[in-house]
Amino acid sequence: MKSTTRIQLSVMMFLQFVVWGAWYGQLSKYLFAINFTGEQVGNIYATFSVAMIISPFFIGMLADRFFAAQKVLGVLNLIGAGLLFWLINITSYDLFYWVMLLYCLTFAPTIALTASISMRQMTNPEKQFPPIRVLGTIAWIAVTNLVGVMGWGDKVTIFYISMITAAVIGLYSFTLPNTAPSIKGPVSAAQIIGRDAFVLFKNRSFTIFFIASILICIPLSFYYSMANPSITDAYKAAFMAAHPGQALPNTFYVENKMSLGQASEVFFMLLLPFAYSRFGIKNILIAGLLAWIIRFFFFSYGNADSAEWMLYGGIVLHGMCYDFFFVSGMIYTDEKAGEKIKSQAQGLISLATYGIGMLIGSLLSGKVKDAYTTGTGDTAITNWSGVWMVPAGIAIVVLLLFLVAFKERKHAIPVT
Prior knowledge:
This protein is 75% helix and 1% strand. The chain is mainly α. Strands 1-2 form a two-stranded antiparallel sheet. A hairpin with a 6-residue loop joins strand 1 (373-374) and strand 2. The radius of gyration is 21 Å and the shape is globular. The two termini are 36 Å apart. The model is unreliable at 410-416 (pLDDT under 50).
């Protein structure tokens, strides 16, 4: 791969994750600031999962078959920028929901498109892709730190950042190396969603892993949608207790603190190959599940005063939670699939996790938040300790399921 191509792809990856990172983790804080309920916030987060379920059809039918991938990426981002411009002026729930759904339908495919464009320009994706993909994590850290320092977490500014960056990458995409359609001939909807990969369900342990992947994404949704407002409330409570009667500061730098979770992803990603070869897939998955349980107990019992270390611990454990279950799960799926159905198998897992699992989690997290909240508007008080015990309980159930039913196999399941 040429050095100029590497630079082009790195810039693409960085810009695309700025678009995502600017709003995703802060969305709930902004929505609560304009007096949306927990259920409404959960419903709006669910639009992303709905889009993740639908986007494989879009990519399969357009980017892979009819149009150059870089042009599809450009058009999607330009349309997304237009929808964000519409979104910044909306404060009513019903209209916000439908515009957000439309926006997520344009954004969700870009995650797969950036990976596809990158790897199809590479001679050795195994070595060349990770240094480019890590630019996405760096972008997320950079933009969330900017939002935190400036105190924009509950401001509409988060969408301005995404809108401007989406317009930039939308235009920039047309300068990327050509990535022509790669599939010819007819294809069915069943093939697009990975029907051939259903053979993997003949193996009981893979079926257990598949079910566990859906279930553990429910707690993951709690983290993405509720961690920011929960930690913000903890710092507000500590400040008001220490400085009664004083006005709250402009920011508690919660976004900056939460960016440590993305930084830990990099560390645990580097640790994963050693852990995989040393301990095996089952032990790694179990370690990841234990990390989920511990982090939610940290969030439940932590505070911004005497137990602030628990809040930091819950954030930093994100890397272990994500990498040791989801990334190692991708490796496990790749090994079990064999050569013929690798892509379809990964698509099936993505559908289960970012689609079904996070859809359920987004809807449930909002209802749970409302159930543990008294009062409305500025007088609302949420019992976050109770909220976090719900995903902790779900993670415990998944861990018990794994301990009892998951058996590691060493060879790929043959495809007939």
